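Quick one: examine this chain and its backbone structure tokens and tell me how the chain folds. Here goes:
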Amino acid sequence: MARLFDADSTLKRLRNRYRLVVMNDDTYEEVVTFKLSRLSVYITLSTIFVLLVGLTVALITFTNLKYYLPGYGSQSQRKELMFYKTKIDSLERSMLYKDQYLESLKKVLSGDVKSTVDTAILKIPEVEKSTQ
């Protein structure tokens, strides 16, 4: 069991050379012959995958295809969205203030307001009368 997970044996299996032969089925003539290893196939496929992903991302990023993606809009639409968002926030705030005002007014008109007396003593200086 330890032999199966040995790093040297894994590396040897990756570097073993194989021959891929493409033959004509009618004449059994070799058309193309490739000498491959598992490592070279892995590296080649990984490189092709990275290049395809990179090209796809570049194509979407640098062309107008990005506007067809869901959730991506134009710059003017974003500015308009931010404008309306701030407008809605200010309207909500003003509605909240108006609701609070109306609730306070209802309480005053119905007499549910607790009267609070200001108990702070103010010392008002007396005005001196000048004699002429």
Notes: The longest helix spans residues 75-110.
